[in-house]
Amino acid sequence: MKMIDIIYKKRNGEILTKEEINYFIHGYNEERVPDYQMSALLMAIYYKGMNKTETVNLTNAIIDSGDIIDLSLINGLKVDKHSTGGVGDKTTIALGALVAANNVPVAKLSGRGLGHTGGTIDKLEAIPGFSADLSIEKFADQVNKINISLGGQTKDLAPADKKLYALRDVTATIDNISLIASSVMSKKLASGADRIVLDVKTGSGAFMKDIDEAFALGKAMVDIGNGVGKDTVAIITDMEQPLGNTIGNGIEVWEAIQLLKGKAPEDLLELCRYLGSYMLLLAEKVSTLEEGMKEIQEVIDNGKALEVFKTFIKCQGGEIHYIDKPELLYKTKYVYEYTAIKDGYIHQLDAELIGKCALTLGAGRLEKSTEIDHKVGLELQKKIGNYVKKGDIIVKIYYNEKRKLDEALKLFEKSLVLSDEFKAARKIIHGVVTKEGEKRLS
Amino acid sequence: MKMIDIIYKKRNGEILTKEEINYFIHGYNEERVPDYQMSALLMAIYYKGMNKTETVNLTNAIIDSGDIIDLSLINGLKVDKHSTGGVGDKTTIALGALVAANNVPVAKLSGRGLGHTGGTIDKLEAIPGFSADLSIEKFADQVNKINISLGGQTKDLAPADKKLYALRDVTATIDNISLIASSVMSKKLASGADRIVLDVKTGSGAFMKDIDEAFALGKAMVDIGNGVGKDTVAIITDMEQPLGNTIGNGIEVWEAIQLLKGKAPEDLLELCRYLGSYMLLLAEKVSTLEEGMKEIQEVIDNGKALEVFKTFIKCQGGEIHYIDKPELLYKTKYVYEYTAIKDGYIHQLDAELIGKCALTLGAGRLEKSTEIDHKVGLELQKKIGNYVKKGDIIVKIYYNEKRKLDEALKLFEKSLVLSDEFKAARKIIHGVVTKEGEKRLS
To answer: ∠ CA B45-B51-B53 to the nearest 5 degrees?
Structure first.
């Protein structure tokens, strides 16, 4: 087998065999296939695409390039949730407790984040003492005992994906559905989950700006999951404006705790109910979406979810009094209240720019080595569709370094559009893709 | 300017500016742009193409990557002829004398060949003593005195083309008209000619297997030449079977000399008359194609062309008695006469396979360091459309090493198809592309 023949074949629009896909992925991972041939092939894939079978084979080849986590020590069906990434997305934190409180095992392995805010581990580390540094035995043992555990990814999962992504990034071959889908799914599937709920974000703050593209990506990922025999569902959700009211690390944990206490903003609650219900469905705990939503609401109302969350944090070394007084999680030196300069309806709160605003304050990292400031963040007082009078507070900015405020304010101002005309916020759930097909809700 | 932005732009089908094209060619030539970005861009160009302006700018950027030869020491309009490469193509040798005998300066700079037979210099070196190792002053002086000179390329012409070609070869991005046209024309234009006649071959022995593709390539090259202000004409000619009757080095020089003596096969004579006439036209020596053809025939008939050829060979150190007895040029140890195994019409003499047959005998080189055997070669006794009886000689094979004959015979046998039905050979001239447009003749 020769790489040049594989490039010719895809260039001419032909379908690659499993053997050919294995050849170039393993060859590239082991540095037998050079960058310049891989990038030519990626560009050919960009134009000619890959069909369902090719995409499944690509995903499997990427999985096989590294370790695969074995969760068989954990009893029951393990359902994982994965988001394609959004601004203010604290659902993983809340969902863990909501699902575990329904006696479904939550065995979550997470990496650290690169971007506007940290990853789930970074966020929970805002709680002093909390650690995700567990052995696989302790991790499994904890799930078996209290239904929930959060571990750091220590194994070398899908190393070919890291190399491919770095190459795609510099050769204009990022935005191809098959390449994106196999990248996401290879990492998920290598993490050992039995079933997967995907939250595919769409809108200004998401990778997929366009709703149709988000459905296409959702479909490609559902096809991969089901193609390898792991039931997968994709929920297409909105990311025109940040999710909930907070953006940061500690402040997002605070909002997740508020949700468990029954005090969450409606968009966040609706999304958690929806995703949580699908997790219960895939775990075969409930048999209808409605039943699942009821169960999720119930563990909020009866306090079970909050109790599970406390036990979980305590088990992993976190100081419990922060859960009783979660406002300590975003106690910064300074607070700036940004007010409306005129009367009007909020027309736009560009999620991407608000994400950059949080990053500027120190809530995220662009490089792996950067230290995160867990306390800084934003708290929106108004969202799209709300009416404000001149002088009303639109956002509270929590910050620790004065010199960073100016740049953050500029970004926030750029994100905001006030208008005389009313505009409703988009629905939070745009639709669902299952192996049976897609259902649009917006 | 960033390479990634240029890749995105072309990937999305946009037109690249002159500055962008200069950026990536010079960046690549100077190793600031890495192979993997260049190959992604080449694949995007493969799919999205380049328009006329982009192709001219690409050619100019490649020319600017190296030296440009200055022929201003030579009086008059310098017309160069270039062939895209075929089997048995000895036209350059004959045409030099035919055009120079018409008082048009022929200042030919040539490289050594890679492939089935040698380049023009390799072929003429079959004449003992002949050397193309001239200083640019001596080269120019000789043209001014006797109208003709052949020099070796000593300067570093279009180095970016060499690098690009090597990359295209391993990334399946060879066969794009703009990339091929700019590659050929950059080398030609850097060689300093004022006007250019291109011989674009089409058929089994040519790079362009398809006639329409050959016309498209001709048009792209004519557009480039005229785009940089150098009158260029492309003649689309046949390469289904070898040109003339001989394939080799000394044996091709012999056939070129036979032509100058008025004893050439019809296809070779017709092509030389046609190409020569266009050279006289571009040199403004004649005003119609017919007049040019008449002038070319006249210098054959009156012996002037042969005389010029002798003077030229003498000036460059060659032993003149080889021109009087040119059969010495292919005097090998052994001759094998391949005969027809049945009666029938010759249906096919695959040019590419016959080229490989000559290469096997030692007539060409695959690597620069290989020594050529100037005397080995093939002499066809029959061509497509001829009828043979069982036992008739189809080809004489001249060879020096017994062990090479078997492989050569296998290749020749594979090239040959005998049939009960008559098939005419294709016309030698398929058409012409000038700046006014194309004219098809077949």
So the answer is: 120
| C-beta atoms of B172 and A40 within 8 A | yes
Task: Write the DSSP string, B32-49.
Answer: SS-HHHHHHHHHHHHHH-
For residue B6, the chain A residue with the least C-alpha distance is A172
Of A4, A7, A171, the CB nearest to B37: A171
Average pLDDT of the segment spanning B273-283: 97
pLDDT digits (tens, 9 = 90+) for B401-434: 999 999 999 999 999 999 999 999 999 999 999 9
Q: Give me A357's structure tokens.
A: 């605003």
Interatomic CA distance for residues A401 and B74, integer angstroms: 74
CATH number of this structure's domain A79-155+177-324+428-436: 3.40.1030.10
Integer Cα distance of B253 and B246 in angstroms:
9
Closest A-chain CA to B7: A172
Please tell me the number of Cα atoms within 13 Å of A442 on its side-chain side. 17
Name residue, tokens 């017309």.
Answer: B79
Give dist(CA A93, CA A74) in Å, integer. Answer: 20
Chain B nearest CA to A326, separation (Å): 45
Helix ranges (DSSP H) in B247-320:
250-260, 266-282, 289-301, 304-315
Residue recorded with tokens 């190399």:
A163
Residue B171, helix vs strand vs coil? coil
**Closest approach of A4 to chain B, Cα-based (Å):** 6
Rounded distance, CA A419 to CA A425, Å?
14
Q: Which fold has domain A3-49?
A: 1.20.970
At B434, is the secondary structure helix, strand, or coil?
Answer: strand
Q: What is the DSSP letter of A424?
A: P
- pLDDT tens by residue, A169-225: 999 999 899 999 999 999 999 988 899 999 999 998 888 899 999 999 999 999 999
Phi, psi of A438 (to 5 degrees): -110, 150
Q: What angle do CA B222, B226, B229 make, to 5 degrees?
A: 150
Cα nearest neighbour of B11 on chain A: A172
Q: Which two tokens stand for residue A260?
A: 């468990």
Phi, psi of B169 (to 5 degrees): -60, -30
Boundaries of every domain in chain B:
3-49, 79-155+177-324+428-436, 330-419
Closest in B7, B36, B172 to A11, CB measured = B172
Phi, then psi, of A108 in degrees rounded to 5: -100, 125
Determine contact, residues B254/B409, Cβ cutoff 8 Å. no
Domain A330-419: CATH superfamily is Pyrimidine nucleoside phosphorylase-like, C-terminal domain (3.90.1170.30)
Nearest 5°: phi and psi at B274?
Answer: -70, -50
**Structure-token pair, residue A434:** 């299952």
B118 min Cα distance to partner chain A (Å): 28
> Inter-axis angle of helices A351-361 and A405-415, to 10 degrees?
170
B135 C-beta neighbours (distance < 10 Å), count: 10
Structure tokens at A300: 């909020």
- A255, A90 in Cβ contact below 8 A? yes
User: Which residue, chain included where needed, has tokens 């200083």?
Assistant: B135
Task: Determine whether A187 is an active site residue.
Answer: yes
Within A84-127, strands assigned E span 106-110
pTM here is 0.87
Q: What would the pLDDT profile of B98-155 be if each residue is shown by its tens digit?
A: 999 999 999 998 877 667 777 899 999 999 999 999 988 899 999 999 999 999 877 7
pLDDT at A153: 75
Q: How far is A373 from A401, CA to CA, in rounded Å?
A: 10
Rounded to the nearest 10 degrees, what angle do helices B3-11 and B35-48 cross at? 20
Ramachandran class of B262: left when φ > 0, alpha when ψ lies in -120 to 50, beta otherwise: left
| Alpha-carbon gap, residue A225 to A106, rounded angstroms | 19
Q: Is the dihedral of CA B256, B259, B265, B266 positive or negative?
A: positive
